[in-house]
Specification:
Low-confidence stretches of chain A: none
Number of strands of chain A: 6
Number of domains of chain B: 3
Distance between the termini of chain B: 48 Å
Number of helices of chain B: 18
CATH topology of the domain at 2-72 in chain A: SH3 type barrels
Structural class of chain B: alpha/beta
Shape of chain A: elongated
Radius of gyration of chain B: 21 Å
Strand order of the largest sheet of chain B: 1-2-10-7-8-9-13
Distance between the termini of chain A: 68 Å
CATH topology of the largest domain in chain B: Rossmann fold
Largest sheet of chain B: 7 strands, mixed
Low-confidence stretches of chain B: none
Largest interface: A-B, 43 and 64 residues
Strand content of chain A: 25-35%
Helix content of chain A: 10-25%
Oligomer: heterodimer
Largest sheet of chain A: 4 strands, antiparallel, barrel
CATH architecture of the domain at 2-72 in chain A: Roll
CATH class of the largest domain in chain B: Alpha Beta
Strand content of chain B: 5-15%
Structural class of chain A: alpha+beta
Mean pLDDT of chain B: 95
CATH architecture of the largest domain in chain B: 3-Layer(aba) Sandwich
Shape of chain B: globular
Radius of gyration of chain A: 25 Å
Chain lengths: ~100, ~475
């Protein structure tokens, strides 16, 4: 994928490699780098994965490897959770059960 | 070119903070180990009337109080005869940006604008980010939010990803990081680079911003029901919600209200652990923040935190993740109100505590929060299931945070669990004196510690003796 100058992109950069991490970091976290993602306008042409400079929405210059062009929100309402359906049924039964059928 | 190494930036912390907040905290320090909290609040904050005015101008505050008649009826079915207090919620989701955090942000951003800052920065993965971004948009300031969003696999908590979207919707720049306390380092670097205002959650103006909530609550209850509520329950994480609410209640003269803190029990999960990060199904309102911030308030991003919940709370309970998800569904099904889960932590506690109270008493949950994609029981449970968390109906007290989520198989199993307040109060004292060697404890110190722990000097002396200090 080709990045054009001015494209809205998301870049990624390692802030600290594992050996640079803060002393108080727990063991498992110390094994992995501290990574950062930020969005902005590409300041140069590039290919996906190449490190470029961007201008963020507040006008800051940042740099990092392009991981996404025109980044999209993909969070959602998740998958169906069948248990949730049961809660309302049970609660209505406890509160109103027996009153619903007047025959 | 300044040294950007971790050690060098952290060493410049106080200098950066002074620039970025405009408060010289040193002038409030006492001779001994304490500081003059009330003087700090008075001299750097705003009066209640000023805050109401500032917030009112951006449509913040004056949220309705709603009676939970059906949840109350349910609680009474489960409670002994004559028990089951009336349950109310203050619908803070009605604020711009969808949570009570708008109150904190309104004051912080107003203050930044007044002092001439061009922008604001906040380190938050919570609702506060959207609140600051929304207020910055209203005041024409730039805004940067720094979030802890992903684990080392690049998997983000859906709740936090949604909060990033909200911030961006208001025109903010969102800087997202993987797990780790070095977020604070990145935050300091940004403050230094931009010269923006630190819209910390823990400044006097931020906390004072919540005082309007407590004040309004008391006034509304008196107007509508003729008296103060008996109990107010606050979801507790960083402590600002409870502190501000309690101070507002006191300012309204509602001094006899019992203040209860409620946090989601995440015992056993480490907040800075990469592998634990996505094993939790709540990113705020939990004990992972609640207990450290309650027992050591000055661990925050300012030299002296204005959020000091132990000065005010009368009781501290935990509830489980499964109970909060269940109650969030119950709120939708029985009251017709769909709200975000984290804000319903206090509602679980209230549902349980109401059953201990007399039927003519009143208990108020002082917040709700917005809900939406990612920040909703279904995606949060779906995410948990995807991360190997076992979700089933059962007895919530069999839960193990990070391994399972136990939805109560019957509402009678919903029980707030009391934390040992004596132990917490002793921790407050222990943390306040930690690191201090060969310091003679003065009467002023004893008085300070008594206020900090909401005890008396006899209790403080006893605690210090146990620590081998007196």
């Amino acid at each position: 994928m080709h990045v054009k100058k001015g494209d809205w992109v998301k870049v990624h950069r390692v802030i600290f490699t594992p050996d640079q991490r803060a002393p108080q970091v727990p063991e498992d976290t110390k094994k992995v780098p501290l990574e950062m993602w930020v969005k902005g306008f590409a300041q140069q042409e590039a290919e996906l994965g190449e490190t470029i400079e961007i201008l963020t929405i507040t006008g800051r210059r940042e740099h990092g490897a392009v991981v996404e062009i025109e980044p999209t929100y993909t969070h959602s309402y998740g998958n169906f959770i069948p248990e949730l359906l049961q809660i309302g049924i049970q609660l209505r039964e406890i509160l109103y059960g027996g009153d619903q059928d007047e025959r | 070119m300044k040294d950007k190494s971790y050690g060098a930036v952290m060493a410049r912390k106080n200098e950066i903070m002074k620039q970025a907040i405009g408060i010289d905290y040193a002038i409030f320090e006492n001779e001994g180990l304490g500081f003059d909290y009330e003087r700090m609040m008075r001299e750097t904050g705003y009066t209640l009337e000023e805050m109401q005015d500032i917030q009112g101008r951006t449509g913040v505050g004056n949220t309705p109080i709603l009676e939970m008649k059906n949840l109350t009826a349910l609680a009474r079915k489960l409670a002994p005869e004559g028990k089951g207090a009336r349950i109310f919620i203050k619908d803070e989701a009605a604020n711009p940006s969808g949570s009570f955090k708008a109150r904190r942000a309104a004051n912080a951003v107003y203050h930044a604008k007044k002092l001439g800052y061009k922008g604001v920065i906040a380190a938050t993965s919570g609702n506060y980010g959207a609140a600051v971004a929304s207020q910055a948009a209203m005041h024409g300031l730039k805004c940067i939010i720094v979030q802890e969003t992903y684990d080392s696999r690049g998997v983000g908590q859906p709740e936090i990803v949604e909060k990033a979207r909200a911030c961006e919707a208001y025109g903010a720049e969102v800087l997202q990081l993987t797990v780790g306390p070095e977020l604070f380092y990145e935050f300091l670097l940004l403050l230094e680079e931009t010269g923006y205002f630190n819209a910390s959650l823990y400044t006097p103006f931020g906390i004072a911003g919540v005082e309007t909530l407590g004040y309004e609550l008391a006034v509304q209850m008196r107007e509508k029901y003729g008296k103060d509520p008996d109990v107010v329950v606050c979801t507790n994480a960083g402590g600002g919600n409870l502190t501000g609410t309690a101070r507002g209640l006191i300012k309204a003269g509602a001094v006899d209200v019992n203040i209860v803190a409620a946090s989601v029990d995440l015992s056993g999960l480490h907040m800075a652990s990469d592998t634990h990060f996505n094993k939790k199904s709540f990113t705020t309102g939990h004990t992972g923040f609640g207990l450290p911030f309650t027992t050591m308030p000055d661990r925050s991003d300012v030299p002296r935190s204005a959020a000091r919940p132990m000065r005010y709370l009368d009781r501290y309970v935990t509830v489980t993740q499964g109970e909060v998800f269940y109650m969030t569904e119950a709120l939708a099904q029985l009251e017709g109100l769909e709200k975000g889960p984290a804000g319903n932590t206090a509602l679980v506690a209230a549902f349980s505590i109401a059953q201990e109270m007399d039927a003519d008493q009143m208990i108020v949950v002082q917040e709700t929060e917005y809900t939406g994609a990612g920040k909703h029981i279904q995606p949060q449970l779906s995410f948990a299931r995807d991360n190997g968390i076992d979700i089933h109906f059962g007895d919530p007290n069999t839960q193990i945070p990070g391994e399972n989520i136990v939805l109560p198989k019957h509402p009678s199993l919903i029980k707030a669990v009391d934390l040992d307040l004596v132990k917490i109060k002793k921790s407050v004292i222990k943390n306040a004196v930690s690191g201090l060697t060969d310091v003679a404890i003065t009467q002023e110190d004893l008085d300070y510690l008594a206020i900090e722990s909401k005890t008396d000097t006899a209790f403080v002396k006893e605690a210090l003796k146990e620590l081998g200090i007196l």
